[in-house]
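I hope you will forgive my troubling you with a question about protein structure. The full record is reproduced below for your convenience:

——
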Amino acid sequence: MFVGSELAEKAEADQIALNGGATVFHAPDVTDGPLSPTRHVVPLAQLRRPLLPPRISRATLAALLLDEAEAGKHGTGIVVSLS
């Protein structure tokens, strides 16, 4: 209700990135904290909705982004970063 126009803009930006062949990362709430040894990404379509909102540390999110930039495992698609 409060983020209607922002959500539409986000979807449009995602589509532009996908059309350009990029991997789009959706991140949960970003916090301070250490690098998670269990970091991973899940395709958005396969994400199981958690009971509580997930969180991820900046260090973990940065590592996942670098992992994808170096290895390119997920190709064009939308993924969710998780700890």
User: Anything to note?
Assistant: The first strand starts at residue 23 and ends at 26.
